[in-house]
């Protein structure tokens, strides 16, 4: 693996020898009859090596692109770095608060928009008074003024995504993991999302950007990683990572 690091900035994320294997139970005995006749033939366990042993360092203020085909391990890596999953081995040091953002993930569908704002804000380490102060801005940015006390299970997927995006924008975090965020909402909301990304997020924050859009990666990322079948194949120059990704798609 090639790895280029910047030397003049503090480290935001340091991952050493991390890996993740999922265990899936292949339960074909899904009826009572099947289970009774297969008492001595338990369901098989399948192991999925989603992330093979890898190390990486990300510096504060960098915008890093994460490239790879479907199932290459990008989301698994992001979830490990964001602390959503625990790593099977090695260690991850993170300096600063983190926020993982992808379409609607982290939202509880049985809660209202208001309740989700407070839960997500608390998870991010904000005090109730701090959430009170930004609450109206979050709802306004998400364009959900008429739906504050509606359970989000009644929202369209675009509305859920807009709420998640607005919480991320207003509550923020030192390190943002953004998984395909430019696919949020309709064209008008996307334009607003890109504007806020360029005006505030990109400045002073550490961003890890997962995207299948080479234009987005090329425009914002100072370095990029290319992943294939759970392996970090390359981490360094953005154009090199893009060319490896394009090659892999041919
Ligand atoms: N919670 C899970 N349980 C079991 N297997 C999982 C789980 N999450 C991911 N996997 C498996 O791990 C592998 C990597 O998945 P991952 O979601 O990290 O890929 P990805 O690069 O983010 O894909 P995409 O571009 O489709 O989002 C896949 O084979 C997937 O089936």
Which key terms come to mind for this protein?
alpha/beta, ATP binding, P-loop_NTPase, 250 residues, Rossmann fold, seven-stranded mixed β-sheet
Outline the structure in words.
This protein has eight helices and ten strands. It has helices at residues 32-37, 74-81, 113-123, 128-142, 157-171, 187-201, 214-220, 238-248; strands spanning 2-3, 11-26, 44-59, 63-68, 89-94, 98-101, 175-179, 206-210, 223-228, 231-237. It has a seven-stranded mixed sheet with strand order 1-10-9-4-8-7-6, sandwiched between helices. It has a three-stranded antiparallel sheet with strand order 3-2-5. A hairpin with a 2-residue loop joins strand 9 and strand 10. Helix 3 (113-123) packs across helix 4, helix 3 crosses helix 5 (157-171) and helix 4 crosses helix 5 (157-171). The longest helix has 15 residues, at 128-142. Bound molecules: adenosine-5'-triphosphate. Adenosine-5'-triphosphate binds next to strand 2, strand 3 and helix 2.
Give the tally of β-strands. 10
Question: Uncertain segments of ≥5 residues (pLDDT<50)?
Answer: 1-7
Strand content: 25-35%
CATH topology-level fold name: Rossmann fold
Number of helices: 8
What class do helices, strands and sheet pairing give?
alpha/beta
Euclidean distance between termini CA atoms: 22 Å
Strand order of the largest sheet: 1-10-9-4-8-7-6
